[in-house]
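Private note to self, pasted from the team thread so I don't lose it. Backbone tokens:
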């Protein structure tokens, strides 16, 4: 089939690669001038183990399977990564109950390498930590996400696929033979495809609304949850990732490390109504309060604004977190169309598993 994938983020690239490796002629339409310029370039670059997500959910299934596939892919393609592990920590009785639930959910989800630690055991691993207990996840890691996307692009192109940069998709129309796609940009055109995959991230809902023949009532709301990050001056205080108990809308203000050993904190959750990426230095005050619950030794003046990202959520404040939404022919009844909504964390970890799922649905 001739297949159009909209969006050259990590999920779009992984889907396009999977389709091209199955023998399809694949074009990726990317509105910007490069790969991964949206959600994929503004995250924690964490490889998640898969213990947070409800039993049987797409997030649980694709995170666990995707993590295994991703580590193997990194090894075979030379993508920089490190299986550094992480601690999910509690600082009071209520949080202790939360992390016990996370541990139990991880066991149900088939996550390997989990261990419940006492406060003393956790502090023995990370002396700067203060907690009442912790869950050790040995399978959690970090990755160079841009190198991952370059490797996916390389595989896609080796299999005969291509990426058209500066190519926004303006309208998709159902025809008897398949799909007619109106392309904007410097050279507007109308092209025909047998199948279309919408992997446009923050643009997925607008594109779905511009798809004639797709039931508009199936388009979910897009809720923007901004996550701000602060860098930390000085030497890293931890050798593993440190996560507090989850909060409404996210996993809490946690310690992440990059592959150069630099320590940063975030993301928090800032509910917004428009796309904006500036980091307000004043938010550092709430970061200090959150971080000092598990790292009392955080020095004054150590936090500096770094960057931010926006999660393409389907639910808002106080609502139960939504699962990934993969709307394919089996769900909406239209052949050759797959819509991806709400692919936030753990989307990067899940990308290879999601890609195989979507490739199967494209052929349905």
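Design output:
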């Amino acid at each position: 089939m001739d297949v159009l994938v909209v969006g050259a983020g990590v999920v779009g690239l992984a889907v396009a690669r999977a389709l091209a490796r199955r023998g399809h002629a694949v074009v990726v339409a990317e509105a910007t001038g490069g790969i991964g310029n949206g959600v994929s370039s503004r995250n924690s670059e964490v490889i998640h183990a898969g213990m947070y997500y409800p039993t049987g959910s797409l997030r649980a299934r694709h995170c666990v399977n995707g993590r295994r596939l991703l580590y193997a892919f990194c090894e075979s393609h030379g993508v920089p990564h490190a299986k550094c592990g992480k601690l999910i920590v509690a600082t009071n009785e209520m949080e202790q109950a939360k992390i016990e639930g996370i541990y139990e959910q991880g066991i149900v989800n088939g996550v390997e390498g989990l261990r419940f630690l006492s406060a003393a055991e956790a502090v023995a691993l990370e002396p700067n930590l203060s907690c009442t207990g912790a869950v050790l996840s040995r399978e959690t890691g970090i990755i160079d996400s841009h190198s991952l996307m370059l490797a996916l692009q390389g595989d896609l192109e080796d299999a005969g696929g291509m990426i058209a940069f500066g190519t926004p998709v303006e309208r998709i129309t159902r025809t008897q033979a398949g799909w007619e796609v109106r392309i904007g940009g410097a050279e507007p055109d109308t092209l025909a495809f047998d199948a279309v995959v919408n992997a446009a991230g923050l643009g997925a809902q607008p594109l779905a609304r511009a798809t004639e023949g797709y039931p508009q009532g199936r388009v979910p709301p897009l809720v923007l949850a901004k996550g701000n990050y602060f860098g930390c001056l000085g030497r890293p205080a931890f050798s593993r990732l440190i996560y507090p108990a989850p909060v409404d809308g996210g996993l809490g203000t946690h310690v992440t490390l990059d592959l150069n050993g630099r320590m940063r904190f975030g993301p928090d959750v800032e509910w917004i109504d428009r796309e904006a990426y500036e980091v307000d230095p004043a938010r550092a005050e709430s970061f200090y309060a959150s971080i000092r619950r598990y790292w009392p030794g955080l020095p004054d003046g150590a936090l500096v604004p770094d960057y931010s990202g926006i999660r393409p959520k389907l639910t808002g404040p106080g609502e139960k977190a939504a699962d990934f939404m993969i709307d394919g022919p089996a769900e909406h009844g239209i052949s050759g169309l797959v819509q991806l909504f709400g692919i936030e964390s753990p989307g990067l970890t899940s990308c290879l598993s999601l890609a195989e799922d979507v490739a199967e649905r494209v052929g349905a």
